[in-house]
Write a structure and sequence with these properties.
Distance between the termini: 69 Å
Strand content: 15-25%
Shape: globular
Radius of gyration: 23 Å
Number of strands: 13
């Protein structure tokens, strides 16, 4: 009986080890996971000049074009998915998306909860108002007592909160584009958005010729986020170096008017 029991325990142990080995064999790196799916799913918002749609509904912009090129480098297709920016890290960890690539500021929260690429662009948060009101909003203190729009969960929200200025009310929007629209329509007095968007969409010759950016509230860096431990961050860093060296990155940046923000790789 004892001999039979020992034999059974030995068999169970072998089966357990075999199961563990099989489980380990099924574990994939992020790049293997993406290749198995045949596509890189990129989380974005409507954010010109980084990610926005052309007249045919195709996603274009500096980040979109770089994302397409990176997916091609990996040998897969690319799929752009609009996300709630406030839930971006949750979307990433749930594998609804494979990366966040949308003019994303490398905040402490992002860097501590994801695997991030090297920074590729300089940016800042700026105040945008109607041209005739520019003199009222030369700095953050000018926002006191006024209606201010920000994108929920954005660097703009964080920077405004850090100023300690008491606005009459803060309106939280789902995208920076919609925060900008609030100013254009006159429902708020000012918004705080990325310099990259303000430069591309306000002032003479733009969609919002009657809007201007006034004060810059900080200095920050853009990067791309992957799941913690992902090998795709290193692969993207290599891709950044390659495309910066061969001129591809700067050509794309020039197309969207942000060549002066690009960081050497």
């Amino acid at each position: 009986m004892k001999k039979l029991l020992v034999t059974l325990l030995a068999v169970l142990m072998c089966l357990s080890l075999a199961a563990c080995g099989k489980k380990e064999e099924t574990v994939k790196t992020d790049s293997e996971y993406v290749k198995a799916n045949g596509k890189l799913v990129v989380g974005i918002t409507d954010f010109a000049p980084m990610d926005y749609q052309d007249g045919n509904g195709e996603w274009i912009g500096f980040d979109a074009d770089m994302g397409k090129a990176f997916a091609k480098e990996l040998g897969v297709d690319v799929e752009f998915v609009e996300i709630d920016w406030d839930n971006k890290i949750m979307e990433l960890n749930s594998k609804s998306i494979d990366c966040i690539w949308n003019g994303m500021t490398l905040t402490d929260e992002v860097k501590s909860s994801t695997a991030t690429s090297n920074p590729y662009s300089n940016n800042s948060q700026v105040i945008v108002v109607k041209k005739e009101n520019a003199e009222k909003f030369k700095d953050a203190d000018g926002l006191a007592g006024y209606l201010v729009a920000v994108e929920a969960g954005s660097a703009g929200q964080e920077v405004f909160e850090e100023t300690g200025v008491a606005a009459k009310e803060v309106i939280y929007k789902d995208t920076q584009a919609n925060a900008l629209l609030e100013v254009a329509s006159g429902t708020v007095d000012a918004c705080i958005i990325d310099y990259a968007m303000a430069a591309a969409m306000t002032g003479e010759g733009t969609s919002y010729a009657d809007l201007v950016s006034t004060a810059s509230l900080n200095s920050e860096l853009y990067g791309v986020a992957f799941r913690t431990g992902s090998d795709l961050a290193d692969k993207l860093n290599d891709f950044f170096k390659k495309t910066y060296a061969d001129g591809t990155m700067m050509t794309i940046a020039t197309t969207y008017g942000i060549e002066n923000t690009i960081i050497a790789q």
